[in-house]
Write a structure and sequence with these properties.
InterPro entries: F-box-like_dom_sf (IPR036047), F-box_dom (IPR001810), FBXL15_LRR (IPR057207), Leu-rich_rpt_Cys-con_subtyp (IPR006553), LRR_dom_sf (IPR032675). The chain is an alpha/beta fold and about 625 residues long. It has 15 helices and 23 strands.
Length: about 625
């Protein structure tokens, strides 16, 4: 009779693997309810649950409100609810800058990066600090208008209130899901099933995607539930769920891929095979084309299989366009160092959201650009809080071919640093939304960067005289196609006249929340007559917009696609009908809070012009 010991050994190994997986579950938590341990499992020891609202808003990518106000700003997420459980449009809530797909359908829209993993769909984020570090048991998000934008919740190991910065900053995904369409704009408390993590946290990050929403999502408060002691799940269970064998698969792939990026991409000893199979028979270019569909972590993993694929995966042609934004939580100086030799031909680089809390140093960023910056045409650095004057100086020196630079929400860059941008004379796109650029630096940029086609100055609060800026644009930036002046506080009809006379190629103009513009001066009719190519015009919250302005747009701007006149009291249904009849391409018309346009009028217009999305917001 053959011995049974080998079979017992195999069974023991299998049982050990299952228990080990179960123990990891206790450490890392459940990905979702399908993977939960059976009902007789209990958390030990039992802790008193702590419930706390956000103490402070630490960082965010954008908001609808002003930098000098509380209305519609991310700062409203701190503290107890202001609005919930009421529904509607309230100034006391937190609102991001965009919604829907309208911003992707206008002249200033940028081409997307390829190779973005399908699991990454975040467009904006906000980071919240809480008083007490806890092991999270639940996160409640109070949404008061058009819910459904939150797509990811993360927790950070760093304590923002600690005097000693940690040696390593870890981010763990508590919950993640693709954007969903929620029926109705009513308020709700969103409480997704979160996984457990093995460290206490008082720093929570929400990431949102508003592309499926019919209007701006509004958030009122975030509630963090947790315990001080780490929960330990008992192993008293009647059976082992075979689904646990595959648990956390997506996260492990992500972590493995990025660890490979940081550690194993430099591997030099690869197993040699006598043959590479059918790959030996394929043309080099065809293999390159096949690999071009892989994400960066997939390339890292594939590079370890054999020397042939290692050679292909390390070919600089695979890195002509590279977006590291989806991996922001794991990108650091080491990542950039190992990518240097592969990015010598890179033309598009996206480092948005990366490098914060010391992950990328000024020296690490500078070393990378000195090797890889010569061919760069497009550089995305949104929310890069590691950037300083040295970084901008390196960009202007090492990237002579740069045409597009995005510094959106880089609010840590000192004002004087922006003078360096004037050295990049070939710039065609410059995004300075929510930066501290000052008037002198901006005038220098406009003077030397005459090729500019797209310029964003939204919420740039340190500019003293926008009329002077507009005059310089009209004189120097004749090729300008899109201009964002969202919430500029002091532009007048004089600046608008200079702008309209000099920049007649303008197709997109955002003058939302510019309180010093008055229709009675003729500034809007002047725009309509001199800018016949306008496709997008935002006059948000300008109460003086009147029928004369709308009729001039109907007569002169027949290519208009998007118009926002939220808040005006002087536009009648008759002028809107003229506009809709004249502008056949119009797809978005926001008449929220327009006192003469009630719901009955909106229903009538929708019936007669079904191709136009007519938005009428409300407050309850």
């Amino acid at each position: 009779m053959p011995p049974v010991f080998p079979m017992l050994t195999v069974l023991s190994m299998f049982y050990y693997m299952c228990l080990r997986r179960r123990a990891r579950t206790a450490t890392r938590g459940e990905m979702n309810s399908r993977r939960a341990i059976e009902s007789n499992t209990r958390a030990l020891p039992i802790n008193v649950e702590i419930v706390q609202y956000a103490k402070e808003v630490l960082d965010f990518s954008s908001h609808y409100g002003s930098e000098n106000s509380m209305s519609y700003t991310m700062w409203n997420l701190a503290g107890i609810p202001n609005v919930y459980p009421s529904s509607g449009d309230f100034t006391q809530t937190a609102v991001f800058r965009t919604y829907g797909t309208w911003w992707d359908r206008c002249p200033s829209a940028r081409l997307p990066f390829t190779r973005t993993p399908s699991t990454f769909c975040s467009q904006d984020y906000v980071e919240l600090a809480f008083e007490e570090p806890v092991y999270p048991t639940a996160v409640h998000i109070l949404e008061t208008y058009h819910p459904g934008a939150v797509v990811r919740i993360l927790a950070c190991s760093a304590n923002p209130y600690s005097q000693n910065p940690p040696a390593e900053v870890r981010w763990e995904i508590l919950w993640s899901e693709a954007p969903t369409k929620v029926n109705g704009p009513q308020a709700r408390q969103f409480t997704p099933c979160i996984k457990q993590i093995n460290f206490p946290t008082n720093l929570i990050r929400l990431e949102v995607n508003s592309s499926l929403l019919d209007y701006y999502t509004e958030l009122d408060a975030v509630v963090l539930h947790g315990v001080k002691e780490r929960p330990v799940l008992s192993l008293k269970t009647s059976m082992i769920d075979m689904n646990d064998i595959d648990e956390d698969e997506d996260e492990e792939k992500f972590a493995c891929g990025m660890d490979t990026l940081n550690k194993q991409f430099s591997i030099v000893t690869l197993r040699e095979w006598p043959t590479n199979g059918y790959f030996d028979k394929l043309p080099y270019e065809l293999i390159q084309l096949i690999l071009s569909h892989l994400t960066v972590p997939d390339l890292c993993r594939l590079s370890q299989t054999c020397k042939l694929l290692y050679q292909h995966c390390c070919d600089p042609l695979q890195y002509i366009h590279l977006s590291l934004q989806p991996y922001w939580a794991r990108i650091n100086d080491t990542s950039l160092e190992y990518l240097q030799s592969r990015c010598t031909l890179i033309q598009w680089l996206n480092l948005s959201w990366t490098g914060n809390r010391g992950a990328i140093s000024v020296s690490g960023f500078s070393r990378f650009l000195k090797v890889c910056g010569s061919e760069l045409v497009r550089l995305e650095l949104s929310c890069g809080h590691f950037l300083n004057e040295t970084c901008l100086e390196v960009i202007t020196e090492m990237c002579p071919n740069l045409q597009e630079l995005n510094l959106s929400s880089c609010d840590k860059i000192p004002p004087q640093a922006f003078n360096h941008i004037a050295k990049v004379g070939g710039l065609k796109r410059l995004i300075l939304y929510r930066t501290k650029v000052e008037q002198t630096a901006l005038l220098s940029i406009l003077n030397f960067c005459s090729e500019l086609q797209h310029l964003s100055l939204g919420s740039c609060v340190m500019i003293e005289d926008y009329d002077l800026i507009a005059s310089m644009m009209g004189a120097k930036c004749k090729k300008l196609r899109s201009l964002d002046l969202w919430r500029c506080k002091n532009i007048t009809e004089s600046g608008i006249a200079e702008l309209a006379s000099g920049c007649q190629l303008l197709e997109e103009l955002d003058l939302g929340w510019c309180p010093t513009l008055q229709s009675s001066t003729g500034c809007f009719t002047n725009l309509a007559r001199k800018l016949p190519n306008l496709q997008k015009l935002f006059l948000t919250a300008n109460r003086s917009v009147c029928d004369t302005d709308i009729e001039e747009l109907a007569a002169n701007c027949t290519h208009l696609r998007q118009l926002d006149i939220l808040g005006t009291r002087m536009v009648s249904p008759a002028s809107l009908r003229k506009l809709l009849e004249s502008c056949k391409d119009l797809s978005l018309l926001d008449v929220s809070f327009c006192s003469q346009i009630d719901n009955r009028v909106v229903l009538e217009l929708n019936a007669n012009f079904p191709s136009v999305f007519i938005k009428k917001s409300f407050t309850q």
